[in-house]
Design goal:
- The complex is a heterotrimer of chains A (about 120), B (about 140) and C (about 220).
- Chain A is built from four helices and no strands.
- Helices cover about 70% and strands about 0% of the residues of chain A.
- Chain A has about 120 residues and is an all-alpha fold.
- Chain B has two domains: about 40 residues; about 70 residues.
- Chain B is about 60% helix and about 0% strand.
- Classes of the chains: A mainly alpha (about 120), B mainly alpha (about 140), C mainly alpha (about 220).
- Chains in contact: A-B, A-C, B-C.
- Chains A and C meet through α2, α3 and α4 of A and α2, α3, α4, α5 and α7 of C.
Chain lengths: ~120, ~140, ~220
Amino acid sequence: MNPAVQNANYGALTSLMPLGGVVPLTWYITLASLLFITGAVGVLVKRNPIVIFMCVELMLNASNLALIAFGRYLGNSGGMMFSIFVMAVAAAEVAVGLGILISIFRLRDSISVDEVNLMRG
Amino acid sequence: MPNFRDPSLSVMEPNVLSNSLLNSYIPVLVMGVAAIALAAALIGLNGILGPSRPNPQKLSPYECGVTPIGSARERFPIKFYLIAMLFIVFDIETVFMYPWAVTYIHSGGMMIFNLIEMLLFVGILFVGYYYVWKRGAFEWE
Amino acid sequence: MPESLAGFLSIPVLLFLIFALGAVSTAVSCVLTPNPVRSALFLVLNLFCVAILYLLLNAYFLAVVQVIVYAGAIMVLFLFVIMLLNLGSPERIPDQMKWQQPVAVGAGILLAAMLTVTIASSVPSFAPATSLPQTARRTTLDAREPGASQTMDNSAILDDIARRPETMGTPYGIGKNLYNPDKPWLFPFEMVSFLLLVAVIGSVSLAGRQTSEEKA
């Protein structure tokens, strides 16, 4: 076990307290979870599928922030590698998702998520 | 619990190198602040100093003296979407190529390996490029 | 009080607080505004704030990629599709499930509370990893004094750039880690090209299809 992780400040709310002059890891993770929750609530609340896509981007971005923060604080390059791949996946997802929206719009002249229910069974 | 942290790295030392790298971004920050301040000042001064005496004639949309017909919100042609989408895909390709290009000269004995790796990547994407070309998505009309 | 404040409020902490506040407020306004175009513009601001947080985390290359790919290309695509489908005006789409909104907000607040407690009790609070004063490693990046350059091994410096958490985020560090055959990123890298191939073919065949009335 690494002494750094052993001596780290666990438990209760003390780990949210500021360190001297540096941003603690917990702040970044808290910020990432707040952004993620904002995106998740947006996905549930919004009725415009394009805005829902944007909220999904917000969630992906929050997860990227958490990955990079963990990678930086642990000195591990895996966090940044992962977030590059997440960006590539997000770009592919947006390209195909918006293509699907365009074809739905052509079929029925409306893209309200409440009306796209043919596959509900 | 697995130990992800590199054991040779110390922990609570001051981040001298990190701060010196970050300091090189101070000009970018200054430029951003200056740009925002300039834009805010110009728009703000315009609102404060300029006279504002609107009348219905002045506020109506101008279309070469002819009364405007219909809404300004018209549907774009689908071609814009296709071009922007293809741009994103090749943009991502460049994101992966850039670090490869920076490190390629230093890859030592792995040069051929790295070259084949990138050729495979570009080759697979070239299949998509060929498909799009044959499909005619690059033609504007 | 001023002394303890000075010990806590260094410039990186201040920058983090400013841009974290910016990121959260733009994200919330992105969700709250009824106009899709404004929503997209707030998301661009949010992505900028997060890019600056990446800079604070020494992920230089990713910060630039975030601005170029996300804020530049992906958001342009979003705006194009908003214009394309003529959804720029708010309240075009009637809500058929009114009860969902308060339930979603309540669930979000509950999730936020649970996550904060979980993070506070299980994520260790330590300072970022750094490699500076290790005695054995002082021969490389830190020893860049004028006279020392002859004795230094050039490849040792380059290896050090890829290993150090502070410089790992430069394009060189990213490339050395991403294209290193000893690390597991080779297969995902090749799979990304397949993913992009599928995305190109999928979206061109979805959106490029002409309906009969459009052909005429």
